[in-house]
From TrEMBL:
One of its GO terms (cellular component) is cytosol. It holds the Pfam family ADH_zinc_N_2. GO terms for molecular function: mRNA 3'-UTR AU-rich region binding; NADPH binding; quinone reductase (NADPH) activity. Residues 10-329 form the Enoyl reductase (ER) domain. Keywords: NADP, Oxidoreductase. The lineage of its organism: Bacteria, Bacillati, Chloroflexota, Ktedonobacteria, Ktedonobacterales. InterPro entries: ADH-like_N, ER, GroES-like_sf, NAD(P)-bd_dom_sf. This is NADPH:quinone reductase. The keyword Oxidoreductase applies. The keyword Amino-acid biosynthesis does not apply.
Length: 331
């Protein structure tokens, strides 16, 4: 089969198509004939050597976390899907090094969810990583109807889903966007559009003097401090940025984590509960998301569809930023 691989960590030019053997599914596994694989920021991090330790890397390495396609073969003991079923899955490539930029992929059946009729596979491929990250971040923040949530990147892949899912829970969403994108943000469920070019915390406190109940950081870096400052005393803060959280002697997301910003590490004050989100594959949650998509109650956007041979170009386009949708590769 054809697959996009890297033989070493580096820039987009390291991506190239090769022929590699097709694997058979073991007990409890399924083989999927890939119809579409989305490109995510984490793929750029893996490619650059920022996610997988150099000494643990296995080359040639196939990249990609999101996959949509048809079940091609099932291993012993698999009962909830069968050959021919239209499915999606999240492959935690940064942990397993099993990537989706290929014509076929073998995954544990417990990762695989059925795609309802009426959902295009190129659309479905944009859902697993970003959708599960958004859902699990909101789960971590434990918001209730009427509470106020600040999202500092509401129009990115994760932010798009986080805004819609929060609005469905009757949470009041504040989103930081460019002025030209304010109407798009409101159409997704942002109640109060803030200007991302101006001081975020100052704008929040002008509208909500005590601060928001919670904040979801999808930007990291210099945005962390301003986002935290916008949270009320005793509020909650979560980030999906992999290198944002540091913890001496424990895992990120535990009590009193340190957070890294350009000026150095700091510990959140004012009794703010801070946590980092590491997405996990959850087939029940994934099924709920794709059913919302099928019912028209969740919107996703695909901006470009490229063949596998143009994976390098897809990475460059994503790195350039400014996209309001996903890039998808097709074999």
């Amino acid at each position: 089969m054809r697959a996009v691989v890297i033989d070493q960590f580096g820039g987009p030019e390291t991506l190239h198509v090769v022929d590699i053997p097709i694997q058979d599914p073991a007990p409890g596994q399924v083989r999927i004939r890939v119809a579409a694989a989305a490109v995510n920021p984490v793929d750029l991090g893996v490619r650059a050597g920022k996610i997988i330790a150099h000494e643990q890397a296995r080359f040639p390495m196939v990249l990609g976390w999101d996959v949509a396609g048809h079940v091609n073969a099932v291993g012993e003991g698999v009962t909830h899907v069968r050959a021919g079923d239209k499915v999606i899955a999240l492959s935690p490539q940064g942990i397993t090094q099993i990537g989706t930029y290929a014509e076929y992929i073998v995954l544990p059946a417990k990762y695989v969810a059925i795609v309802p009729d009426g959902v295009e596979l190129t659309t479905a491929a944009s859902l697993p990583l970003a959708g599960l990250t958004a859902l699990q971040a909101l789960e971590k923040l434990s918001l209730v109807p009427g509470e106020m949530l600040l999202i500092n990147g509401p129009l990115g892949a994760v932010g798009n889903f986080a805004v819609q899912l929060a609005a469905r829970q009757h949470i009041i969403v504040l989103g930081a966007v460019h002025e030209k994108d304010a109407e798009l943000a409101r159409s997704l469920g942002v109640h109060i559009a803030l200007d991302r070019q101006k001081d975020l915390a100052e704008q929040v406190h002008q509208v909500i003097p005590a601060g928001v109940d919670a904040a979801l950081d999808l930007v990291g870096g210099a945005a962390i401090q301003g986002t935290l400052t916008a949270v009320r005393d005793g509020g909650r803060y979560a980030t999906v940025i992999p290198d944002a959280a540091l913890r001496s002697g424990g895992r990120a997301g535990t009590a009193s984590p340190e957070w890294k910003i350009p000026s150095g590490p700091f510990v959140p004050q004012r009794s703010i509960t801070a946590s980092s989100i590491l997405v996990r594959s959850d087939v029940t949650q994934l099924a709920s998301l794709v059913n919302l998509l099928a019912a028209g109650q969740l919107i996703t956007r695909v901006t470009d569809v490229f063949p596998l041979e143009r994976a390098s170009e897809a990475h460059q386009l994503l790195a350039a930023g400014g996209l309001h949708g996903k890039i998808v590769l097709v074999p």
